[in-house]
Amino acid sequence: MFPEAWEFHVTPHLNSGIKALIQNHGEAFDAFSNGLLQLLLWIQSALSAVPWWGYILLIAAISWFSIRKVVPTLVLSLLPVIIGVFGLWGLAIETLAIVITSVVISLALGIPLGVLMAEVKTVGVIIRPILDAMQTMPSFVYLIPAMMLFGLGKVPAILATVIYALPPVIRLTCLGIELVPKSVQEAALAYGATRWQLLKEVRLPLAMPSIMAGVNQTIMMALSMVVIASMIGARGLGQEILMAINRINVGRGFESGLSIVIMAIVIDRITQGLAKKWDPVKKP
Amino acid sequence: MSDVAIAVEELWKVYSKSKSGKVVIDVDDEELMRSIEASSEDVVAVRDLSFEVKKGEVFIVMGLSGSGKSTLIRCLIRLVEPSYGKIIINGYDVTAMDKKELTEFRRYQTAMVFQHYGLLPHKTVLDNVAFGLKLRGVPKKERREKAMHALEIVGLEKWASYYPSSLSGGMRQRVGIARALVADSPILLMDEPFSGLDPLIRREMQDELIRLQEEMHKTIFFVTHDLDEAMRLGDRMAVMKDGSIVQIGKPAEVFANPANDYVARFVQDRGEEIRKADEQIAALNVANDKEVNSDVS
User: Fold this and answer.
1) A202 at interface of B, judged by CB pairs closer than 8 A
2) Which residue of B has its CA nearest to A185?
3) Distance between A213 CA and the closest CA of chain B, angstroms
4) Contact call for residues A117 and A127 (beta carbons, < 8 A)
5) Is B165 close to A281, i.e. CB distance below 8 A?
6) pLDDT at residue B111, rounded to an integer
7) Chain A residues with CB-CB distance to B189 below 8 A
8) Is A279 in a helix, a strand, or coil?
9) Which of A181, A119, A202, A188 is nearest to B106 (CA)?
10) Could you say which of A184, A192, A202 has the minimum Cβ distance to residue B103?
11) 3-class SS at A1?
12) Comparing C-alpha atoms, which of A96, A102, A119 is closest to residue A236?
């Protein structure tokens, strides 16, 4: 047995710390929460303004532009019809709004952090363990303080999603930059590239495929968080699944589960297609 | 003094496997120098080099791989930081420069050609050639005109809008040379530029460099492991072994009076190599003739 006398708990300290935080800086958290909610509502109303066939056309246009094959384009643009047929279109749009908001925030934070990590070695030393913790810490653990600080609903859901979806884009941005061939960088330096020019002209463009893979991963991970997000009151497809679990309704769960899978497939194929299209290294 | 393009004094480069990777060197501290030579952690890549290169001269540095010649050429513009010593190029003390001065210096005073070309795969041939000018901040139209002109000089104007991946090795190195020409820097640094090319193309490129040099009269610092190349191109040459220069002089002198066994072995091998190369060329010619004949028939 581990000696009982050595036991020490951070629990009371953490709990009182969070309480003090809410009492003293409640307004600040409320303001932040409101700002985030405004962004989400704005994105959601923009998404809702587009009619269902608008999405079909949009997906068809993007996939034709990036993939240039008839069958995949048809399959990708018709798959979302299934979501509509199940009567889940509105919920799917709400989920999409949460996913897009989280992804936008993740990319806005993640890409610069990834660049910084590759450029400054000490930043990497500090960030890497934090990323490990973010990816392995069960999401419910940080949902508790997030809920206390930002209330129930979509805002803590977005925060939880960002925490979960942020690491891959940081890592893959950094990796992409680190994998740029030394010989190419050396040539740029020999012709008098400054650090900034090296980053802008050589490192970032050549890291693009890896960065795009990070973007894709971030989107996929954000989608996989929707069920957990619904547990703290974020509406959307995840809520349907939650209800299906509560009522042991296999069919209902399957319908919304399949809808999430369809969203994932469509978004994944489209972003991968675009990534290939934008690969700066042109193949002969 | 004014006719000296590159002056190197007591240049050392020591790599260290230890964590910091930096080695402090003081030539006057004999004990320290002995411990560095004896240490298994530290590797001396360039050992106490002093030499001068005159303006307009083609100076060859020759040696086997691992002799420190690539480290030396990189030290000249501090792509590799020297551990000790002084480098003066066109009157600029390279070793004393801060980052900003060094960047400016690299932009206007030197241009480098690499063994593995170092082309940017995401830029077209034209933009690759114009890259040095872009770094200088030359407007787009002007730098493209100049780059196009340089491409004409190396005979690749038709390939301007292609990407490097569609080009053969020889063509890629022509792009590398055009990129160096367009910078119009007084000093050309060439790190085994033709080593990766097959013998016929190599010879063609050497002839082309000779032709270009007749017009340009630049100072060329040329690293190679190929004695034949050194003999064809060099006004003077230095033979390196284990980081030191073992002989320096006109190629014909080195050929006639090798300073030691190491150089002598190089020179001996050369006769052998030339015979082999001639045989190869003859064989290729025969093969080509056959191909042409079969095409005709």
Assistant:
1) yes
2) B118
3) 18
4) yes
5) yes
6) 94
7) 190
8) coil
9) A188
10) A192
11) coil
12) A96
d(CA B52, CA B259): 19
Look up residue A126 and give its two tokens.
């500090």
pLDDT for position A49: 92
Q: Distance, in angstroms, between A282 CA and closest chain B CA? A: 7
CA torsion sign for B97, B100, B103, B106 is negative
Quick: pLDDT tens for B72-86: 999 999 999 898 889
pLDDT reported for residue A68: 84
Q: Give the distance from residue A115's alpha carbon to the nearest chain B alpha carbon, in angstroms.
A: 19
Chain B interface, best mutation among A180, A191, A202, A206, by max B CB count within 10 A: A191
Q: What confidence tier does B125 reach under pLDDT thresholds 50, 70, 90? A: very high
Determine the average pLDDT of the residues in B248-259.
Answer: 86
Query: Binning pLDDT at 50, 70 and 90, where does residue A217 land?
Result: very high
ipTM: 0.84
CB-closest option in A184, A192, A282 to B104: A192
Cβ–Cβ contact B119 with A under 8 A: yes
Higher-pLDDT residue of A78 and B30 is A78
Say how far apart CA B72 and CA B76 lie, in whole Å. Answer: 7
Mean pLDDT of A58-64: 91
Task: For residue B183, give Cα distances in angstroms to A220, B105, B277, B280.
Answer: 47, 12, 34, 37
pLDDT-based confidence at residue B21 (cuts at 50, 70, 90): low
In this structure, what token pair is assigned to residue B2?
């004014």
pTM of this prediction? 0.82
Q: How far is CA A127 from CA A105, A113, B219, in A?
A: 18, 9, 48
Partner-chain contact A191 B111, CB within 8 Å? yes
- A25 vs B130 pLDDT, higher one: B130
- Residue A33 pLDDT more than 70? yes
Candidates B19, B122, B124, B126: best to mutate against A (most CBs of A within 10 A) is: B122
pLDDT in tens, B262-276: 888 877 766 666 667
Q: Does A158 touch chain B (CB under 8 A)?
A: no
| The predicted structure's pLDDT at residue A284 | 45
Residue whose tokens read 């003077």: B236
